[in-house]
Structure formats: C-alpha cells, structure tokens
C-alpha cells in the first residue's frame, strides 16, 4: 500500500508511520518546512514538505497514493479562525488535491470525540449522536468531518474518532505525570468524571483497518480502549504507581481550577509560553464525562482494542523517564 500521512511528525503520526513501515508499505510523510521529524528517525519514509493551508503544496504529496491518513491539525489557537483555517479548511484543501489526483485514493480522517462534546456519566456517545462541541477545537473537528464527507461522491472517506489517547510520545497527558513527580495528585471536587481512553497503537490498528476494510467508507468510528472508563484520579494513581511515587492529594474546587487556568492563560498571552494548564483543559477536566462506545467498530469492522490502559500508562511513564521528559 502507498500511504501519505499528513501531520506525520506528531504523536499519532509517528506511531502510524512506524506501523505502516513495519508492514512494508511505502510511506510518504507530509511535514511543514522545518517541522520536527525526530520521531521518524529510523522509519523508512519519503518526506514531502508542505502545509494543508497551502493547497499547491498538497498536489505532489497525494500523487500516486492509495490511502491518505489526514492527521495534520492544531489543538491550540488564540482565535476560532486559527482552528478553522487549519483543521477545517485544511481538510478541504486536501480533499480538493485528492480529487484532482484523479484516482480516488481513500481518505482516513483523524476526527475527535471533542466534536461531539462531553457525554453524560451514564451514557457514552455513539456515532449517531449529533455534533455538540463545547469549544473551538471540537467545532473545527466537527466541521472537518462535514467537509470530508461532502466529498463522499468523489472519494472514499472514513473517519476515526479517538477519545483521549495515551502512550509513549504523548504530551497531552504528560502534565499529570509531572505533577506526580512533584508529589501532587489532583482531585477535582464534584466527581467522579469518567473518561474513555485508548492506547495510541490501538488507534493505529483501527486506522489501518479503515484504510482497507470494504465497509469503512462513508462511516465514522469511535476508537475506545478496553474495559470501563477511568477517572482523572485513577489515571494519576496508575501513573504514580508506575513511577514508584506516592504523591499527596490536592483537592481543587471547579472555581479554583478555573481561576488558575485563567491566570495561566494570562501568563501565556504576556510571555508567549504555552503553559500546560489553560482554560480549554480546565473545561475538559470539569465536564461531567468524556466517554464513547466502540461497539460500531467491533460490529462493522471486527475491531478489538488489545492494549490494557494500565499497561499503556506504565509504558508512557517508563518512556517519559527514558527520554528525560520527567
């Protein structure tokens, strides 16, 4: 299989590139000029410099590809336009380039549970639920899906919707491991707030299945990890245990967490530094639940997640230490 990965230098992109190369597939990685490709060291691939916001740069990247895995996007931005320009309109530019290529490569789009917004503690989201994003990132990911499926008469399109992803190379959850290292375990008042998590290699497995399965085009699939959802407190406990630490519990009210996040955003605006705490993260942590069901992927594609979450957290902790991130 000839496969293009946009956003190949990111957390999920690195793992996907490794898996494709291990299968013997021909891997092309679209990376922004000067973009960090250190995670791809040792992975056989062809690099193409380009940017999803620059349509002309996409044409040589999609030429001759059988599958395009579209992972490029932004998770942080100062304005709604920042998210829409990259996550939504970037998807449109890529689809236009794929249509112009003339040979109907399959598009596997990395969506997000954020497009659906929070769930309730008692009912996980299913794919048939309407989009109800609560912030700009989720709004842009919902729009990216709408745009991608609007090309369904010209391209075979399928969407993977992961919840919170964990595993080595992940920076989104690194904050909680750093807190444990500093002797702190956060406990948010008003919980528990269940979270569906999934190992990065399980997300890769589902995306590879969607790239080839005949029932995948035209469908979106949640990618849920095995077992019951966890809480933030349980994730921290597993991380601390993996690190051999016994942090003290610091209890925060929603009001205090929101105030700290607002202050952190103020520091970020003044200094230009992106701090780990921000109002977006605070809103995510204070939502009643972020859960989704993986039943559709199991029913239509035969997909079963294979990595236990406790082991995923342990692997992450060990890798962070090895890399000097902790």
TrEMBL record:
Superkingdom, natural source: Bacteria
One function term, GO molecular function aspect: aldehyde dehydrogenase (NAD+) activity
A Pfam family it matches: Epimerase
InterPro entries tied to this protein: Epimerase_deHydtase, NAD(P)-bd_dom_sf, NAD(P)-dependent_oxidoreduct
Gene3D superfamilies recorded: NAD(P)-binding Rossmann-like Domain (3.40.50.720)
Start and end residues of each NAD-dependent epimerase/dehydratase domain: 3-218
CC annotations in GO: cytoplasm
SUPFAM superfamilies cross-referenced by the UniProt entry: NAD(P)-binding Rossmann-fold domains
Protein name: NAD-dependent epimerase/dehydratase family protein
Organism, as annotated: Pyxidicoccus fallax
